[in-house]
Amino acid sequence: MAVALFWGSMAFGQTSLISAHASTVTNSTPNAVSNTMKSAVRVNGTVLTEADVLREMYLIFPYANQHGGFPKEMETDIQKGAIDMIVFEELLYQEAKRTKVSIASGLLSGAEAAFRKQMDSSAYEQYLRTECQGSRQMLREKIRRSLLIEKMLDTEVEQKSVVTEAEVKAYYDQNPKQFEKRESLRIQTISIIPLQNRGADTDKETRKRAEETYKLAMATKSFQEFGVLAEKISDDDWHVNMGDRKYVDVSALPPPIVKAAATMKPGEISNLIPLGNSYTIFRLVDHESAGKKPFAAVKAKLKSDLQKQKRMELRAALNQRLRKSATVEVL
Asked: Which domain holds residue 268?
């Protein structure tokens, strides 16, 4: 995760650090304020500028450049989110300094070298002039600030958000309804739909096409062969995906299909099934019975979800704790 925050705060085509003192917005940036050093918010006496807010807004909505700015209906919320984020980062930085968190010189030098490697010489020199007043020491302090913020997040959030397998299993056992699965079918379909504006012969022609297609379908021997035929012949929307409808709850399928599948084994192909004026042939890929999903099948995703939830809760609690004793003024 080295300098992830540092790199994550690069925005609008030029390099810009998470810094309470960054001051330059590129001329090509839509909606750039004319005076980017104008104060936006004060955090325990430290002033964050409109440039800092704008940078964060571009991280939240990176498509602003392509769209000529931020959508009017979203701009207020994006701006509020950006202010909340830069305040949180500044509070983390101040807390890191208060508690004397340190950054090893080797890590700092490595981050500076990695940053330097991202740009050609002219872009690097321009950044030093515009963002760091020509000072490499100021650049190092910006990098140090980002590393301190990252270290605080790692210590207070990431390390504490680890969820053990025992905790995952306990959640699984205590919340059985969340892991119930309904009966579902995975099928590949080939559908023959009546051609339009063909008069009285439409039904007869549709039946003839369906019967010819059925013979071809019965000659297929695999998922791939049936899928290729579906892509070539089927009139339904799933033909572009080899006829594969993935898993579908039986309640969402026509009863004749569900009834036919009940006596079939995976890999078998159904009879020609009339559905109104159309016909369907399907290949059964899998038939899942109703029941509880096994722990092994849900463990990885459940662990990830629980860790994300825990991470969000820890981050919110940390933000609340830091703000409790802080003075934050939106200017």
From this structure: 183-289
Residue 73 φ then ψ, to 5°: -75, -15
Q: Is there a contact between 123 and 75 (Cβ–Cβ < 8 Å)?
A: no
Q: Does some domain include residue 20?
A: yes
Q: At 176, list the tokens.
A: 């059985």
**Using one digit for the tens of pLDDT, what is the confidence trace for 133-186?**
889 899 999 999 999 999 999 999 999 999 999 999 999 999 999 999 899 999
What's the CATH number where 71 sits?
1.10.4030.10
Please spell the DSSP secondary structure of 248-295, one letter per residue: EEGGGS-HHHHHHHTT--TT-B---EEETTEEEEEEEEEEEPSEEPPH
- 168 by Cβ neighbours in 10 Å (0-12 / 13-18 / 19+) ranks as buried
- Which residues are CB-neighbours of 331 under 8 A, at least 6 positions away? 39, 40, 41, 42, 47
Q: Could you tell me if 14 and 77 lie in one domain?
A: yes
Total number of domains constituting the chain: 2
